[in-house]
C-alpha cells in the first residue's frame, strides 16, 4: 500500500512502546509518557494504516528497538488518529525517513502545556499490545 | 533488599550527598539535612521515602545515556535528578491517603512524578533543572497546567491539584 504524501485526518499513527512505563495493562491505557516529545520537539511516529500486525511489529523492532543502545522489549503501540493530533494545534510532518515515518510537530515551548497535550493524546489513544 | 533499602530502613533519610554538582545542589543538601532532622524517626516516612528514592535511583541507572528510547531521548538531566530528590523528601508529608506517585524520566531528560488514576485522571509534576516544577493535570474534561517553584515545601497549588485527583 502506497501512502499519499499528505496525511489524512482519519489516518492512524503509531507510537511504539519500548518500556512498561508507557502504558497501564490493568487500565488498558496509554500513559502520557508515550506522547512527550524529546528536546527537538519532534515526536516520532509511524503511519500504520494498511499494515498487518506482524508488519507493524517488524517496523518497531527495526527502527525503534534495534536503534536503542541497550535494546529493550517492544511491548506494543499507541494508536492515535491524525484528527486528535490536529485538534491540539499540532501537525504531522510525513518525512518518510524511514518509510512510513512521520513527526508530530508544532509543540509549545511551555513544558507544562506540552505535558498537558501529552496527557490528552494519551487519553485519546488506543493501546495495542504485541502479545 | 537493596543496599539503599537497608540503609534507609536503619535511617530513613540517609542518602548519598555526592550527587550534587552545583552551588544550588549544596544548598539542597543543607536544607535536606534540616528536613532529615525534622522527620527522622518516623517509620511511615522511612518506608515511603525508601520506595521513592529506590525508584529514582533505578530510573537514573536506566536512563543515563542518550537515545534510551530508540527515538532520540535525552539522558537524565542531572540537575533535574538532584531536585527530584529534594522533591521526594517532601512527598511522605502528603496525606497517607494519597498514594506515592510513579516516577519516570521523560524523553526530554526531566524527572516526572505522576499520579495516574486513569486516562482522564492524571496529574504530573515535571522537575526542572532549577527549583522549577512544571505541572499538568487532566480531570475528566477539565485540564490544568503551569509552573511553580519549590523552596522548602511542595507548593500549595500542586498539593491542591494532587488532592483533586483523590477527592470525591
Q: Biggest sheet of chain B, strands in spatial order?
A: 1-2-3-4-5
Helix content of chain A: 10-25%
> Percent of residues of chain B in beta strands?
15-25%
Uncertain residue ranges of chain B: 1-21
Oligomer: heterodimer
Number of domains of chain B: 1
Most residues in contact, chain pair and counts: A-B, 36 and 37 residues
Task: Describe the structure in your own words.
- The complex is a heterodimer of chains A (131) and B (168).
- With 131 residues, chain A is α+β, with helices and mostly antiparallel strands.
- Chain A has one domain.
- Chain A is built from three helices and eight strands, in the order ββββαβαββαβ.
- In chain A, the strands form two sheets. A six-stranded antiparallel β-sheet of chain A has the order 6-7-4-1-5-8.
- Chain A is globular.
- The two termini of chain A are 25 Å apart.
- Chain B has 168 residues and is an alpha+beta fold.
- Chain B has one domain.
- In chain B, strands 1-2-3-4-5 form a five-stranded antiparallel β-sheet.
- In chain B, strand 2 and strand 3 form a beta hairpin.
- In chain B, helix 1 packs antiparallel against helix 3 and helix 3 runs antiparallel to helix 4.
- The radius of gyration of chain B is 16 Å and the shape is globular.
- The N terminus of chain B is likely disordered.
- At the A-B interface, helix 3 of A face strand 2, strand 3, strand 4 and strand 5 of B.
Which key features would you list for this structure?
heterodimer, A: 131 residues, alpha+beta, 6-stranded antiparallel β-sheet, two-stranded antiparallel ribbon, 8 strands, 25% strand, B: 168 residues, 5-stranded antiparallel β-sheet, 5 helices, 21% strand, globular, disordered N terminus
Offer a quick outline of the entry.
Chain A is α+β, with helices and mostly antiparallel strands. Chain A has helices at 53-63, 82-86, 111-124, and strands at 12-17, 23-24, 29-30, 43-47, 76-81, 91-93, 101-105, 126-129. The model of chain A has no long low-confidence stretch (mean pLDDT 95).
Amino acid at each position: 500500500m502506497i501512502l499519499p504524501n499528505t496525511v489524512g485526518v482519519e489516518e492512524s499513527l503509531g507510537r511504539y512502546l519500548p518500556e512498561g512505563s508507557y502504558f497501564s495493562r490493568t487500565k488498558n491505557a496509554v500513559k502520557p509518557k508515550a506522547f512527550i516529545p524529546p528536546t527537538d520537539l519532534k515526536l516520532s511516529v509511524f503511519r500504520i494504516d494498511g499494515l498487518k500486525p506482524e508488519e507493524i511489529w517488524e517496523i518497531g523492532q527495526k527502527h525503534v528497538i534495534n536503534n536503542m543502545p541497550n535494546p529493550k522489549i517492544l511491548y506494543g503501540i499507541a494508536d492515535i488518529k491524525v484528527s486528535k493530533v490536529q485538534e491540539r494545534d499540532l501537525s504531522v510532518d510525513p518525512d518518510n525517513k524511514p518509510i512510513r515515518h512521520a513527526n508530530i510537530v508544532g509543540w509549545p515551548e511551555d513544558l507544562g502545556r506540552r505535558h498537558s497535550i501529552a496527557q490528552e493524546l494519551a487519553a485519546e489513544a488506543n493501546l495495542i499490545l504485541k502479545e | 533488599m537493596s543496599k539503599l533499602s537497608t540503609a534507609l530502613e536503619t535511617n530513613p533519610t540517609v542518602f548519598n550527598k555526592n550527587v550534587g554538582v552545583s552551588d544550588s545542589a549544596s544548598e539542597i543538601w543543607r536544607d535536606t539535612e534540616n528536613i532529615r532532622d525534622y522527620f527522622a524517626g518516623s517509620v511511615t516516612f522511612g518506608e515511603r521515602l525508601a520506595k521513592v528514592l529506590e525508584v529514582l535511583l533505578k530510573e537514573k541507572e536506566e536512563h543515563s545515556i542518550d537515545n534510551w528510547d530508540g527515538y532520540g531521548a535525552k539522558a537524565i538531566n542531572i540537575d533535574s535528578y538532584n531536585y527530584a530528590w529534594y522533591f521526594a523528601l517532601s512527598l511522605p508529608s502528603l496525606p497517607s491517603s494519597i498514594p506515592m506517585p510513579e516516577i519516570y524520566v521523560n524523553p526530554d531528560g526531566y524527572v516526572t512524578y505522576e499520579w495516574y488514576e486513569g486516562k482522564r485522571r492524571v496529574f504530573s509534576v515535571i522537575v526542572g533543572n532549577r527549583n522549577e516544577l512544571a505541572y499538568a493535570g487532566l480531570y475528566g474534561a477539565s485540564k490544568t497546567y503551569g509552573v511553580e517553584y519549590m523552596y522548602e515545601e511542595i507548593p500549595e497549588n500542586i498539593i491542591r491539584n494532587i488532592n483533586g485527583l483523590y477527592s470525591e
